[in-house]
Amino acid sequence: MLIWLIFLDPSIGKVDKASFSQQTLMELLIKGLDVNAEKICGSNSPKSILEWNGIILDDGTSPDDESCVTEIQWTYMQLEGSLHFEWLPSTVRRVLLYGNLLKGSIDTSCLNEGLKYCTVAQNRFSSELDLGSLPQAMEVFNASKNEFYGSIHLDNLPRSLEE
């Protein structure tokens, strides 16, 4: 009987993103890169994020004294492949990814709520893009020069984008 109770708990098997270190989240974010990931984190196993190119860290004043990623600047690095945006650390406020060869989709509903600035322009992203699911803090979102398809709905935009 006890076994049945364990399997009935819906929280079992779910991953709590907040329990992962910044290092782990960043490694999961870039896991889909096929070409030039070494320009970010080195050619062997990924270096410490303290040594990664194109990321800005805070001063390490988080409760666990871990430095937190606040900005990602991976522009014109000839990155190819996909990024797993669902693993973007919740501490990231700015993402600059323009001028690469990134592909796949961008699920705007999984972007962290504190993200204010995101430009993914000049890539090869291709999917429908739900602007209504952008984080409410978003002030700038540039997805031009990609291969998105479908209708663009400008209702339900974050208020900060409407201003």
TrEMBL record:
This is Uncharacterized protein.
